[in-house]
Amino acid sequence: MSAMHEIPGGGQSLLTVEHLTMRFGGLIAVDDVSFQAADRRITAIIGPNGAGKTTVFNCLTGFYAPTVGRLTLHGRGGDFYLERLEGFRTAQQAGVARTFQNIRLFPRMSVLENLIVAQHNKLMRASGYTVLGLLGFTTYRMAEADAVDKARYWLDRVNLTDKADWEAGNLSYGDQRRLEIIRAMCIDPVLLCLDEPAAGLNPRESAQLNQLIKFIRDEHKIGVLLIEHDMSVVMGISDHVIVLDYGCLIADGTPEQVRGDPAVIRAYLGEDEKEELPAVVRQDLEQIQQAAPEQDGEAR
Amino acid sequence: MQHSFEYFLSQLINGVTLGAIYGLIAIGYTMVYGIIGMINFAHGEIFMIGAFVSLITFLLLGFAGVTWIPLALLIVLIMAMTLTAIYGWSLERVAYRPLRRSPRLAALITAIGMSIFLQNYVQLLQSARNKPMQPVISGGVELMREGEFAVSLSYMQMMIIVTTLVLMTCFSLVIARTALGRSQRACEQDQKMAALLGINVDRTISLTFVMGAALASVAGMMFLMYYGVIDFFIGFLAGIKAFTAAVLGGIGSLPGAMLGGLLIGLIEAFWSGYFTVEYKDVAAFAILVLVLIFRPTGLLGRPDIEKV
Amino acid sequence: MAVTATAARAGAGFSLPAMVKEAGLTALVVLGLSFYLVGFETLDVPGGVDIRTRFGDVAMAVVIAFLGRTAVFLLRVGRPRPVLLLAPPIALLILVALLSETLFGPVIGARVKLLVPFDSPVVMWAVLAVTVILAVRAAWRLSHDTQQLSDEQRDARAGAVAAQVQRALRYLGPALLVFALAMPFMPFANRQIVDIGTLVITYIMLGWGLNIVVGLAGLLDLGYVAFYAVGAYSFALLATYLDLSFWICLPFAGLMAASFGVLLGFPVLRLRGDYLAIVTLGFGEIIRIILLNWYSFTNGPDGVSGIPRPSFFGYDFTRNPAEGEASFHMLFGLEYSSMHRIVFLYYLILALALLVNFFTLRIRKLPVGRAWEALREDETACRSLGINPRNTKLTAFSIGAMFGGFAGSFFATRQGFISPESFTFIESAVILAIVVLGGFGSQIGVVVAAVILIGLPEIFRELQEFRMLAFGMAMVLIMLWRPSGLLAHRDATLRLGPVGRGGGTAR
Fold first, then answer.
1. Which of A24, A54, A100 lies nearest to residue B305, judging by beta carbons?
2. Coil, strand or helix: which one is B206?
């Protein structure tokens, strides 16, 4: 897919996914999916459970090696082929950060420490790969102070400053989710991938999440890729929506376009039931429905 | 060192015999790993206890004047399996069940602790010296002869191989056909669901340990009769090799355990026969390392996909 | 909680048949377990094995099991009174029997001793200890009347204790250090005591070294003794073949050990916990077998002897030094005493151990140390943050190996002679036990564990026999009681707010 193709919702291409296919033995989890995600835009990937959304994420972030496909990240300092990057390098070199469906914090480390660990690579260099740090050179101490400042900045954004010294495992669920997101931001990514960030949040927390994600898009000017089931989040803040079903891409457009797309509706709500019933049952059903037409909507 | 076919054949027979013993122990490892996902580090000691129980029973039978060999063997077999099974059961109840929800590290530490405990328990009670025993079954058949060198298949070797085959078949039938076997396979795949369906998970796990212990005790009895001498430390080495066998064959796979046992036995026999005896244990350890590095699922195991 | 406490007080849940059944089952199992291995003792006689019966011991074991389980049952259902009534007298009886010789004089005492079922006094002391514990718990239950604590509550309480110990360390740490420095000059310090101190500190150093690998990075290493051995042998061979001094060989030995750490670690560190443990165990054994059999290089089972002793920066610890050289005692104008070298060795290992400790405390505050701990918590999350798991693990592994190598060099020079016998799997297990029991990642925990596990059996020689048995049992008991270890407690390496404001929880 050429970069000249216009992306729904606008913007410059940040991520180009071409013919991504993921096969596990005989099971095809992702089947020839191609799309583009724009920089400084929020792109949502939606679809029923088992559609292959997290598999796409795992391919993008180096946890799976795709069977087929080219994943190009147009990042800082050039293009990165994500399908070729080894696990941790997608974060280290390409600048792709992610969160997980089941929150993965460092539970026995403090909130602050979680954020400092995220800035590992920068701090390693500043500590002269540990040697200078051991000897007490000031370059490391200054770098660590900067790291704490960055952590404090993000903690303030999500109102976690008071709990900075708490053990991460002791935070409430909503706080843990937010911590995971700001921890991902601490690696200075160009693309932030959020895997169901609103799962388990109540409406107020979802609204706060929306604010946070929009803030990240607008103030930090990066691209956000988002897997979600919560439609208030998807429709509320996305610029671009991609719909997967059974591993295939079935819709790709703006939220308004996708909302009315019959293929999407079918995928979520199922086929019209009448056509699937056996003939005898269908006849009976039609007889009953003819007898009481005003109850048609409730019969199903 | 001879390069004749006869030499090869006798090493082959040695290897198969040894492999049978390792295989019986390996089944215990693989079953426990399959059902609760932990390495029962103390399983080697269960094997050792089986050998000691067999020894004591043989001695008692000797004092009691029981000389008809088939009867003696039967009694020893029953006593060994029963008493060792109690050890297996207690091991699970005391050391492993309370830690079922704990991190795997804690369970491993406990297993190591139990292994050390059992080794020293037997050492203190029975002294650290080697315990020899008169051969119970001697003699054999000569298969072929090349000048001075004869390839023989001893009755003991035959008994080991036949017993192992019989036990394996019974065991496979139990796993495949009976309700217990089904419960076990269900628990292996999804414990919570099995419990929800009414399977008594605790009892299934206990029975798994008991069966593994029983098989290991038979291996202990065979070991005692074949080598004629045991001590409190035989569990350590045999345990590691049997675990290697289980991993080689594919941890969690029953046929894998037997296959792995056979392979390890053959490798050990051929290595001692054609290279050096001193380093034969290194061969086993080296295989363990290589398998875990290059093919951790083993030969017949199922690949493990980690869900992120 | 109040409702259930009332129910417990009323004795709900207590039924005599249930109690008898439970205790009876336990007794039956103990009978099955002990009948053979305890009941029959195989004696080595010329020409084979003989059998001796010890059914008295079996009977006693069964009775103790029955009574013990009954007591546990009673405590569990909230009827502590019977336990409180019976346990103290029984404990007293056992105590009297144990001390019978001192109390009643040798003749009557010996007769009383015959009443004591088990031959070994150590076992009886253990039974006494258990009885006392039961009595104490009964008293506690009676006065507090609470439901048994759940696992989390117990863990939380133990955690609070550990946290207090950690805080007390600000004063306790320096105090311990001063004590350790001054120990050789204290009135009770004779050669044996200083020797024991040296041994304990050697194990503390090994524990601190392994702590980096297991405690901080969470890599289960069951073959740590391999690096100890590599260090010892590198040092020994360098010193005997090339005639180099201690201070030159030491860094080389550490380097060798670290290289082995990289070599061994590189292929295996990506394996999961259990498998990594077994593989490292395999490596440990492989190294030992090679050392045992490579006669031409390592002298095999004969070992390497004639390893030079360390000198005080060039001044040997000999009574009569070589021509033109001064020895240590001359330098300071003291009478020659063999204690000088012993004390020097003590301070040497103390310095090495403190080096490891200092390093560990520093590295926790550096990115690599935090990365180790993060890796231990969740490797997948680390990967998602751009941390290279393989290199990070390798660093921990090889640094731990290096310190093990240093300890090995010290061991070689202290003994003057090494052989493969000293480097068995049991050593790895002991060091692991020290780390585990003390609490993963806890420096003070390692000290406590080493003092108890190494120091006590040395001081009380009768315990030697039971040392490994107790090890095994202790490992199991601690894991059952508190899987994270006795004094495990983690203080954050970086704080935003003042100390004391960090213990919040929303759960």
1. A24
2. helix
Higher pLDDT, A238 or C161: A238
Asked whether the beta carbons of A67 and A29 are under 8 A apart, the reply is no
Amino acid making up residue C398: S
- Expressed as residue numbers, the domain containing A88 is 1-95+188-269
Q: Is residue A101 assigned to a domain?
A: no
Put simply, whether A271 touches C (Cβ < 8 Å) is: no
Which segments of chain B have a pLDDT < 70?
Answer: 1-3, 148, 302-308
A100 close to B (CB below 8 A): yes
Residue C257 near residue C407, CB atoms below 8 Å? no
For residue C395, pLDDT over 60 is answered with: yes
Q: Does residue A173 sit at the B interface (CB-CB below 8 Å)? A: no
pTM metric for this prediction = 0.85
What per-residue confidence (pLDDT) applies to A300? 39
Q: Which of A77-86, A155-164, A213-222, C152-161 has the lowest mean pLDDT?
A: C152-161
- The answer to whether residues A76 and A24 touch, using CB atoms and an 8 Å cutoff, is no
The residue written with tokens 């991460």 in the block is A168
* CATH 1.10.3470 residue window(s) in chain C: 166-481
pLDDT of residue A73 exceeding 80, the answer is yes
Pair A209, A86 in one domain: yes
Half-sphere exposure of B283 (CA within 13 A, CB side): 18
Tell me which architecture the domain covering C166-481 has in CATH. Answer: Orthogonal Bundle (1.10)
For chain A, say whether C362 makes contact (Cβ under 8 Å). Answer: yes
Are residues C29 and B86, on separate chains, in Cβ contact within 8 Å?
Answer: yes
How is residue A4 written in tokens? 């000249």
Pairwise CB contact (< 8 Å): B308 & A63: yes
Nearest chain B residue to A102 by CA distance is B308
Confidence of residue A178 (pLDDT cuts 50, 70, 90): very high
Query: CA–CA separation, C284 vs C267, rounded Å?
Result: 15
Q: Is there a single domain that holds both residue A217 and residue A84?
A: yes
Task: Judge if A75 and A151 occupy the same domain.
Answer: no
Chain A residue numbers touching B305 (CB-CB < 8 A): 24
Chains that touch B (3 or more CB pairs under 8 A): A, C
- pLDDT tens by residue, B8-58: 888 899 999 999 999 999 999 998 988 888 889 999 999 999 999 999 888
Which residues 238-267 of C are in CB contact (within 8 Å) with B?
Answer: 267
CB contact under 8 A, C374 and A109: yes
Check pLDDT > 70 for residue A298. Answer: no
Chain C: nearest CA to B277, how far in angstroms?
10
Cβ A164–C497 below 8 Å, yes or no?
A: yes
A278 and A255: one domain?
no
Q: Write down the pLDDT at residue C13.
A: 58
Residue of B nearest to A55 (CA): B308
Number of domains in chain A: 3
Give the number of A-B residue pairs with CB atoms closer than 8 Å.
Answer: 5
CA distance C490 to C198: 28
Of A92, A113, A121, the CB nearest to C494: A113
Of C362, C367, C504, which is closest to A163 when you measure between CB atoms?
A: C504
Place of tokens 């027979």: B13
Contacts of C350 (CB under 8 A, 6+ apart): C180, C181, C201
Domain annotation for chain B: domains and CATH numbers: 5-294 (1.10.3470)
Domain match, A239 and A278 both: no
Dist CA C436 CA C433 (whole Å): 5
Q: Tell if the CB–CB gap between C367 and A87 is shorter than 8 Å.
A: no
pLDDT of residue C382: 93
- How far apart, in Å, are the Cα atoms of B76 and each of B56, B166, C37? 9, 17, 15
Q: Of C380, C492, C507, which is closest to A165 when you measure between CB atoms?
A: C492
